[in-house]
Amino acid sequence: MARLRAAVPFSNRDWGLLLVIPGVILFSSFMLYPIVYLFYISLTDATFAGSVIGGGADLIGLDNYVQLLSDSQFWTSMTTTWLFVAVSLVIKVFLAVGIALLLNHARVFGKRYMRAAVIVPLGFPGIFTITVWRGMFSDARFGVFNTILGRYNGVMSSLSAPEILLFDVPIGFLSGRWEAFFAYVTTEVWLAYPFMVIIIVSALQDVPRELHEAAMVDGAGFLERFRTVTLPAIRRPVLFASILTGATAFQQFLIPWVFNQGGPARQNELIIVYGYREAISFNEFGLSAAILIVAIAVIGLFMYAAVRYGGLAEGVGDE
């Protein structure tokens, strides 16, 4: 046996590394190489697709980054993007936790069918869902939400309600900055909440029933049990889902572009839309590449900080 082991040219560790190499090559080809090439473009004065592909652009160093940091539109886009991520994430967490608690409650009947209904939005293509929501937020008087608000006004008027409780219909959901921002957030929440509900429901099912029973014996009510038993048990799954959906929201392109291309007047232009417009509309490929490199760096730092300081990396790599 000793002679056989001596004849084997590779150890278990070497075989493990050998098996990982194909995956590393594929990852480098489809992930690292595009990022490296994008960084190279950001150091050039490329202004059209031919200069990118044909290599006709000249190196200009960090000039694109200097120009970017002095561009007010960049800071507007970055601020709007983070506001979009923060607002939508808070709503998603509260909504998903509430629905998950409902779907996991012992007194709720038909939970299996309700859970299936919750994940239905995941079955539709994103562009289809976003287009439907755009129609619902139409500025037209007979748009879905404007029609609902018009009927609400009719009911409240018949009850002699104060004018302050009525809406000025039609509302320009896509022509006002904050109205459009509200439409973005609503659609993002609809797209992402099913994923968070699935994660949280799974976490709730792993909470030991004995802990709840012990808390009930001690006289703890629902809110107290949720704070001391449920919330600590589901904290890490909720944080994990929040990091993923937050990163996805930061990279959102379809919602602002399909709704009103980041309008009005580029006030709701999220960072990816900003980079896309600089390349396609203004032929600033070098500047666009710099925008996307900054976006990659920011989202990378966000995910690292969230995992590092959120405690998700605890125990990883421990012997």
Give the SSE layout.
Blueprint lengths: L1 H6 L4 H31 L6 H6 L8 H7 L2 H32 L7 H8 L7 H11 L7 H15 L18 H29 L3 H9 L4 H29 L3 H7 L10 H10 L4 H25 L10
Can you give a write-up of this model?
Residues 78-303 form the ABC transmembrane type-1 domain. InterPro entries: MetI-like, MetI-like_sf, UgpAE/MalFG_permease. It is found in: Cell membrane. This is Binding-protein-dependent transporters inner membrane component. The chain crosses the membrane at residues 15-40, 82-104, 116-136, 181-204, 285-307. 71% of the residues lie in helices and 0% in strands. The chain has 319 residues and is mainly α. The two termini are 29 Å apart. The protein has helices at 2-7, 12-42, 49-54, 63-69, 72-103, 111-118, 126-136, 144-158, 177-205, 209-217, 222-250, 254-260, 271-280, 285-309. The chain is flat, with a radius of gyration of 26 Å. The longest helix is centred in the first third of the chain and has 32 residues, at 72-103. It has 14 helices and no strands. The protein has a single domain (40-309), classed as MetI-like fold (Orthogonal Bundle), CATH 1.10.3720.10.
